[in-house]
Amino acid sequence: MTTLAVISAGLGQPSSTRLLADRLAAATVAALRRDVSVETIELRDHAHAMVDAALTGFPSGTFRAAVETVTNADGLIAVTPVFNASYSGLFKTFFDVVERDALDGAPVLLGATGGTERHSLAIDYAMRPLMAYLRATVVPTGVYAASADWGADGGLADRVDRAAAELAALMEARPAPEKADPYDEPVPFERLLAQGAGQ
């Protein structure tokens, strides 16, 4: 089963950020044309746990499960509202907690929402560098949705479909991770005996 993790860093409920995340996920599932398990994570539900994890260095409880969902997924959609010309604090805190190598090579689609078109470049100058630091593989098309885009004909839908097709292609091209078989290199019996004799 192919797994797709979706992060929504919106503060409201409902939010335009979640709406964009859902549209991107639906378009990606349609482009993959296979069975896909979609796991959506609302960061607002984990706000306190994220702060605790940032302070202790260890995610716990349902937040730990959310982090594992993201890091084990075959693809990731990450959407944030834009505040003060950059991603939200929730969005940044989540990726501060994720282990640096956990998203190495992971296919990622970036999306953002805002009140006006003025913040549309936040995906390129704020979000992409963050993903580059984490060594994720980001699709070329980022999707920014301003308030006016929700009523426009064609523009947003076209960008959503294009970005989703790019993510689907990356997910299909990525080789399945090799899982180590603990029985491939068994411990020699003599070493086990020697260890037992030393106790």
From TrEMBL:
Residue stretches making up the NADPH-dependent FMN reductase-like domain: 3-150
One GO MF term: oxidoreductase activity
Key words of the record: Flavoprotein, FMN, Oxidoreductase
One Pfam family linked to the record: FMN_red
Keyword match Translocase: no
The organism's place on the tree of life at top rank: Bacteria
Transmembrane segments: none
Record's protein name: NADPH-dependent FMN reductase
Source species of the chain: Actinomadura spongiicola
Source organism phylogeny: Bacteria, Bacillati, Actinomycetota, Actinomycetes, Streptosporangiales
